[in-house]
């Protein structure tokens, strides 16, 4: 089963925060789950994040083991063998995560060859390459 978690850019410190998404655009960090009880919190931190920077973990990692989130910029080879920058996004019409060149959803066999090089919120300059 895929782990459900999110990240978002903090409203105050402008750094990415990772964890559970709470109402009103807050990320809960440093928690753990005890399956015998409800959520248990240990030294937790709740951080306000900018709503448009919130992205969900897509359930897979890049070739270096880095988790891939919605809004990440990855570098991958196209069919001509050239490297291209892609943005991971949620395809609402097909209910799946996707990237511009793939057009048929994220597949683990393709993901193993990509690398996360940034995200659209902190590294917009990568999209012009």
Envelope shape? globular
For the terminal residues, how far apart are their CA atoms? 35 Å
Please give the order of strands in the largest beta sheet.
Answer: 4-3-2-1-5-6
Structural class determined from secondary elements: mainly beta
Annotated CATH architecture of the largest domain: Roll
The ordered string of helix (H) and strand (E) elements is: EEEEEEEEEHE
Q: Helicity, in percent?
A: under 10%
Highest CATH level, the class of the largest domain = Mainly Beta
Radius of gyration: 16 Å
Q: How much strand content do the residues show?
A: over 45%
Low-confidence stretches: none
Average predicted local confidence, pLDDT: 80
Helix run count: 1
